From TrEMBL:
It comes from Crucibulum laeve. This is Peptide/h+ symporter protein. One of its GO terms (molecular function) is transmembrane transporter activity. One of its GO terms (cellular component) is membrane. The keyword Glycoprotein does not apply. GO terms for biological process: oligopeptide transport.
Length: 609
């Protein structure tokens, strides 16, 4: 295969690729407007610029993957969403399994181990960190050894074993010995996190790989000619994929009531039984799935490319190192073309094209480095806002039920965005690009934290429990239940809904971005890198354990709001130029680098299992 230095590749791609914004400013048709877009089915550049883009029909196998993700997320959120009370709160009076007596259910809170807020926060933060570190394991195994399908199948069994241990940890016999129950819980978290993380790295790219359509024209029943766009289809796939995640997370609704009314063993048993669906659905569709095979030592080669390029650039002077890394010749030491015929070092087992893929992937994936701040805001709805809710008037509502407003709001909003807002913007020529969507996500997440900060301030003013030392005697009712603030618990809905909207803008777009910007042979690893930002966020959050107490919630939420806004602004200023390179970045690793790889073309399958 003919290879080209990266600079020549860029030159060729730039000469063929025109961003949508540039084309809108061009009021005349040039000579290339009638040339068919390579990889398309009879679509010209003029068609691409003037016709409305719509999503194609999703394949049957994509919906099978949706079912897998739904079941896996139900079991994840159906357990982790009740961890806070399970670890933090003691056994309610007269309880052996964590359930609340019928007479106490108006104000009572389920609990079991009684380890307190900070211990609960630390364990839950570790769980999140672990679940988003282990995608590296799944991504490496899938891309270099087993492939995505087999990796998901194997680790679904691993995850199921973890769920069985979790059920065992929550039986009355285990809870009677809190330290034993805690040990089993941590073991279950470690095993479930390994399984869930490996699945998570692979199920996201696998669902998009099920679509293999090409850019083409189609006439609607109304007579309008439109472009069936793989790019818009991938966007739609990830919207509905995220809807499946949030349909699954609604499993925590039943878990909250099961824990309160029947104990934690039943709350954990239901998702364990549901998880059996994951390997069954995978096996049922084995012959229909589009499967990309593993590509061998691609990750090791990637590390070698980076190492060879970084070696000459490294200096004890950090400023000199940074300048060298930004040099146009930074990647030259790792390119075979640099050395000439017969002089290529033996350790170079790749071509110039592969070096270009590594360079572009790293450049594009820099956007994920800003996401730890976004996930810091999101993490507040997992636990701290549940604690906020516990200090409000419940009127029989389990405090950990409220966090289900987040997935419910996402489920409601996704059809509105997919069928209403996004088509409306496209029809009017408004390019609400991935970078703009992610920036909007940061802004909305900041608004959610402002709402939470103001609400906590009012709770502090109206609650008998002031959190300024030893609580006064009036803090507890005669039944030894915390005397709450008179503010109704449903007022806390605001941050959950706003964070849900922020996820649609930022989180869903990050999945789409990770898939479209990664070469076919590195999609799982790039997805793992994207998800690893949540682990970094958890590590940062863990460092804030000392301020994750109710007395400091007002300032904690407010600080996160300001940080999210500043980060979102910097993110947009740094990466706004990527909007103009969207077509080029989508072409990474999609075929002949000398030509124009169709900016809308999805990753084509290698074979079917």
């Amino acid at each position: 295969m003919t290879t080209y230095p990266e600079e020549k590749v860029d030159e060729k791609v730039h000469s063929r690729v025109h961003s949508i914004d540039d084309e809108k400013n061009d009021h005349h048709l040039d000579d290339t407007s009638s040339i068919y877009i390579p990889g398309s089915e009879g679509v010209t550049q003029h068609d691409l610029d003037t016709l409305r883009h719509v999503a194609d029909r999703l394949p049957y196998t994509a919906w099978l993957v949706v079912v897998v993700e739904f079941a896996e997320r139900w079991t994840y959120y159906g357990t982790t969403n009740v961890f806070n009370n399970y670890i933090r709160a003691p056994l309610p009076r007269g309880s052996k399994d964590g359930s609340v007596l019928r007479m106490d259910r108006l104000t009572g809170v389920a609990g079991a181990l009684g380890k307190g807020q900070q211990t609960s926060f630390a364990i839950r933060t570790f769980n999140t960190f672990w679940v988003y570190v282990t995608p590296w394991v799944g991504g490496i195994i899938a891309d270099t050894w087993l492939g995505r399908y087999t990796t998901i199948l194997v680790f679904s069994i691993v995850c199921l074993v973890g769920h069985i241990i979790l059920v065992a940890s929550s039986t009355p016999a285990s809870i009677a010995h809190p330290d034993t129950a805690m040990g089993l819980l941590i073991l279950a978290i470690a095993i479930m996190g390994l399984g869930a993380g490996a699945i998570k790295a692979n199920v996201s790219p696998m669902i998009a790989e099920q679509y293999t359509g090409k850019l083409r024209k189609e006439t609607l029943p109304s007579g309008e000619v439109v472009i069936k766009s793989p790019a818009v289809t991938i966007q739609s796939i990830y919207l509905w994929f995220y809807a499946a995640i949030n349909f699954g997370s609604c499993g925590a609704i039943s878990a909250s009531f099961l824990a309160r009314d029947h104990g934690y063993w039943s709350a954990f048993l239901v998702p364990t039984c549901l998880f059996v669906l994951v390997p069954l659905v995978l096996l049922a569709g084995k012959k229909q799935y589009v499967v990309t095979p593993p590509r061998g030592s691609v990750l090791l080669e990637t590390m070698r490319v980076i190492g060879m390029s970084l070696g000459p650039a490294w200096s004890i002077n950090p400023i000199r190192t940074i300048k060298a890394c930004r040099s146009p010749d930074f990647w030259a030491p790792s390119k075979p073309s640099t050395y000439g015929e017969g002089r290529v070092p033996a350790r170079i087992t790749w071509d110039d094209e592969f070096v270009g893929e590594v360079a572009r992937t790293i450049s594009a994936c820099r956007v994920f480095l800003f996401f730890p701040i976004f996930w810091l805001c999101y993490s507040q709805i997992d636990g701290n806002l549940g604690t906020v809710a516990a200090a409000m008037t419940l009127n029989g509502t389990p405090n950990d039920l409220i966090q289900n407003l987040n997935p419910i709001s996402i489920i409601v909003m996704i059809p509105i965005f997919d069928y209403g807002i996004y088509p409306f913007l496209r029809k009017r020529g408004i390019n609400f690009s991935p970078i703009k969507r992610i920036s909007a996500g940061f802004i909305v997440a900041g608004l959610a934290m402002v709402y939470a900060s103001v609400l906590q301030s009012y709770i502090d003013k109206t609650s008998p429990c002031r959190f300024d030392g030893v609580a006064p005697s009036e803090c507890m009712t005669p039944d030894e239940v915390q005397n709450p603030s008179p503010i109704n618990v449903w007022v806390v809905a605001g941050p959950y809904i706003l964070v849900g909207m922020a996820e649609i803008f930022a989180s869903i777009t990050s999945l789409e971005y990770a898939f479209t910007k990664a070469p076919k042979r590195m999609k799982s690893v790039v997805m793992a890198f994207s998800q690893f930002q949540t682990a970094l966020s958890s590590a940062l959050n863990f460092a804030l354990t000392a301020v994750n107490v109710e007395a400091k919630f007002t300032w904690l939420f407010g600080s996160f709001a300001v940080t999210a806004w500043i980060t979102g602004t910097i993110f947009f200023l740094v990466f706004r130029n990527l909007d103009r390179r969207e077509a080029e970045l989508n072409a990474i690793g999609q075929g002949d680098r000398a030509g124009f790889a169709d900016e809308h073309e999805s990753s084509a399958p290698e074979h079917k299992a």
